[in-house]
């Protein structure tokens, strides 16, 4: 064994303690550190010829790279839809690496059963019935990809084509209908051989809504009667967190034959709150569902879950036929359910957080974030120079400059906010108008943080 490696093994407790100290300082200091770290990165160093050991690598990292990392896990990072990491989930993530379970198969470990337990808890959390099975994947993009892959197989079943064996070309054109699809849907269609151009946008409700017009959707389905169709419904759009009427869309299945996939990447968490659960009424009727856990569940990257009613079709798509792995039988191992064979135990951080804080703790995060988003929205309305682009429906505030909201001026405002180190927001375009988004999903964020964001927006105008 390499002497440096042997030395690290002998001093593993000290190495882990040193890493623990760095991590503890980082987590404790998040509220006070700059939220973004603009500026150039260090120049690339050559590959080390000789190893410096674990503690040397830790020292090199903390000196050279750590100062340039963003505070994206902190309370005023409001870009994209970015959660943090609850203390319990961080502990679970550390143990995921320490136990380093091989989830290619059960492999003599109970880790796979822990994942099944976690999936069952999440299914209950989101109000899905026992007909839905689930599996962990990397994020919403992969969850949407898996859901559409199963939908593609369903379309083949309707046409007498085995797509997993004969290929997407044997299926022929397959339309995907949606009102305000996330960009990952088109990406998934490209990956799956359906083609980005088969995404058909259905008219939206009037009045600046991002929710689909169900009557227009029915008309689109009627036009395609006799041909399988996939419908992607949205439970929380990225700009304004608008929700399609899932119950009304599901009711259309009584008259039309289509696969219903619901993208609930972060909007599905409305189910946790009695105040907002009606927004996802009908989610259980979906054929497949996407939920992203490293958003509002506040577990470390990467973690998402995918649910479906048709595990048989899922196995048909993703099974791995190999003598050393065996064919799926009974309760299939997870390598037969997602694109990955090798996969880390992503369920463990989620398991830790669910055990540590329960339904009530995660409901509190959701409801507090919604209240804070509305607080920021009210502050923006009262701030000269800014205006809301849409009502604050849940946890995202979509806003722009009151006068001349050009792409250049809006981008300048975003850069000024980031340069302040106080907050971070990301650009968007809503109804043709350049704007900014502030998305609340971090468990740490407080009223004081929201007020600091308002102050830096005012100062940056």
UniProtKB/TrEMBL annotation:
Q: Does the keyword Oxidoreductase apply?
A: no
Which cofactors is this protein said to need? Answer: pyridoxal 5'-phosphate
Q: Which Pfam families match?
A: Pyridoxal_deC
List the keywords (alphabetical): Decarboxylase, Lyase, Pyridoxal phosphate
Q: Which domain of life is it from?
A: Bacteria
InterPro entries to which the protein is assigned, alphabetical: Aromatic_deC, PyrdxlP-dep_de-COase, PyrdxlP-dep_Trfase, PyrdxlP-dep_Trfase_major, PyrdxlP-dep_Trfase_small, Pyridoxal-P_BS
Source species, please? Streptomyces lavenduligriseus
What family is this? Belongs to the group II decarboxylase family.
Q: Does the keyword Lyase apply?
A: yes
Q: What is this protein called?
A: Pyridoxal-dependent decarboxylase
């Amino acid at each position: 064994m390499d002497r440096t490696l042997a030395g690290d093994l002998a001093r593993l407790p000290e190495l882990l303690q040193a890493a623990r100290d760095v991590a503890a300082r980082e987590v404790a200091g998040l509220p006070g550190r700059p939220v973004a770290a603009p500026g150039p990165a260090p120049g690339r160093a050559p590959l080390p010829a000789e190893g410096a050991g674990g503690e040397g690598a830790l020292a090199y990292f903390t000196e050279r790279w750590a100062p340039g990392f963003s505070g994206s896990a902190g309370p005023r990072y409001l870009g994209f839809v970015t959660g943090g990491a609850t203390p319990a989930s961080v502990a679970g993530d550390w143990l995921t690496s320490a136990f380093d379970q091989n989830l290619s198969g059960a492999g003599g470990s109970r880790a796979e059963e822990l994942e099944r337990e976690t999936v069952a808890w999440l299914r209950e959390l989101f109000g899905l019935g026992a007909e839905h099975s689930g599996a962990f994947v990397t994020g919403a993009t992969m969850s949407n990809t898996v859901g559409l892959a199963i939908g593609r197989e369903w379309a083949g079943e309707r046409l007498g084509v085995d797509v997993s064996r004969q290929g997407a070309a044997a299926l022929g054109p397959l339309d995907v209908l949606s009102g305000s699809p996330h960009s990952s849907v088109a990406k998934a269609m490209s990956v799956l051989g359906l083609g980005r151009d088969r995404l058909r946008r259905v008219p939206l409700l009037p009045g600046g809504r991002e929710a689909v017009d169900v009557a227009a959707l029915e008309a689109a389905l009627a036009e395609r009667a006799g041909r399988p169709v996939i419908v992607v419904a949205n439970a929380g759009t990225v700009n304004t967190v608008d929700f399609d009427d899932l119950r009304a869309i599901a009711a259309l299945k009584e008259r039309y034959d289509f696969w219903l996939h619901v993208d609930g990447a972060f909007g599905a968490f409305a189910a946790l709150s009695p105040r907002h659960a009606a927004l996802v009424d009908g989610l259980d009727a979906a054929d497949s569902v996407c939920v992203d856990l490293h958003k509002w569940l506040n577990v470390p990257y990467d973690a998402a879950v995918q649910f479906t009613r048709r595990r048989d079709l899922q196995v048909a798509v993703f099974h791995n036929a190999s003598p050393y792995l065996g064919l799926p039988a009974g309760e299939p191992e997870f390598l037969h359910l997602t694109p990955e064979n090798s996969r880390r135990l992503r369920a463990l951080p989620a398991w830790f957080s669910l055990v540590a804080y329960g339904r009530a703790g995660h409901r509190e995060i959701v409801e507090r974030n919604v209240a804070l988003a509305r607080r920021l929205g009210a502050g923006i309305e009262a701030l000269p120079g800014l205006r809301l682009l849409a009502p604050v429906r849940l946890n995202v505030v979509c806003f722009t400059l009151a006068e001349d909201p050009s792409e250049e001026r809006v981008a300048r405002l975003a850069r000024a906010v980031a340069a302040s180190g106080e907050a971070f927001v990301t650009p968007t375009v809503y109804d043709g108008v350049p704007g900014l988004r502030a998305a609340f999903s971090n468990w740490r964020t407080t009223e004081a943080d929201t007020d600091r964001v308002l102050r830096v927006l005012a100062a940056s105008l």
